[in-house]
Amino acid sequence: MSTSDYYKKNPEARRKRLKQQAKYNKKPSQKKKRAELNRINRKKGTYGNGDGMDESHCKGGGTRKEKASKNRARNRGKLKCKK
């Protein structure tokens, strides 16, 4: 079963996940990261053009163009809900 199927069948778990995600996305570090990548995407002309590509952070501190699905799927397990 995929993650999306699980959350479709478990609305309470979905609400809990969305609440946790909203809290995480409000962190100043996350806002800064999003703003930086949006700025880079605008500069490179990839912001909102529908090509399915994102600017992704690299280990060396730079960025590179990468498929959005790959970039956003990486490290999903790090976000844990607190009990």
Using brief descriptors, characterize the structure shown.
83 residues, alpha+beta, 2 strands, disordered C terminus
Entry summary:
This protein is of the alpha+beta class and 83 residues long. The chain has helices at 3-9, 11-25, 28-44, 68-73, and strands at 53-57, 63-67. The protein has one domain (3-78).
Number of helices: 4
Overall pLDDT metric: 83
- Strand order, largest beta sheet: 1-2
Low-confidence stretches are 79-83
**What fraction of residues sit in β-strands?**
5-15%
The radius of gyration is 15 Å
Oligomer: single chain
Helical percent range?
Answer: 40-55%
| Global outline | globular
Helical/strand content category: alpha+beta
Please count the beta strands (DSSP E, at least 2 residues each): 2
Largest sheet, in brief, is: 2 strands, antiparallel
Report the span from N to C terminus.
24 Å
Q: What is the H/E order?
A: HHHEEH
Supply the number of structural domains.
1
Description:
With 83 residues, the chain is an alpha+beta fold. The protein has one domain. Helices cover 54% and strands 12% of the residues. It is built from 4 helices and 2 strands, in the order αααββα. The protein has a two-stranded antiparallel ribbon with strand order 1-2. The longest helix has 17 residues, at 28-44. It is globular. The two termini are 24 Å apart. The model is unreliable at 79-83 (pLDDT under 50).
